Fold this protein.
Amino acid sequence: MKISTKGRYALRMLVDLAEHRNEGYVALKDIAKRQDISKKYLEQIVSILNRPDILKTNRGYQGGYMLAQTPDKYTVGDILRITEGTLAPVSCLEQEENFCERSAYCSTLFIWEGLYKAVNDYLNSITLQDVIDRKNDAGNFDYVI
């Protein structure tokens, strides 16, 4: 499993929107500049994320994007599944039901199921708010001598 630039940039874009949520609608050009991502590429990502439960959109002079919910409602796992499609490490786990003819006697299936569960559990445990909090904490150095 390898996360594509689409997934990584979508995450960066949503973190940026979360960080600037008090500023109202944010223009893509501003996100592109802050994140050093092509505006054209962000437009492609927005088309994937443009769902009522993810983004609010406003057109016109004061137009742009904002999160539809608070940052604690978005998990990294959800974002990556929207952009990547699946986080399954092997093709037989991509669907809800495993249709592989070998699944009943596959001696390695438990490995891939365990990896899949670990990845999903980990990514589902991190929210956009967690990312922002960690970033903010990294800047608070407390040196004691």
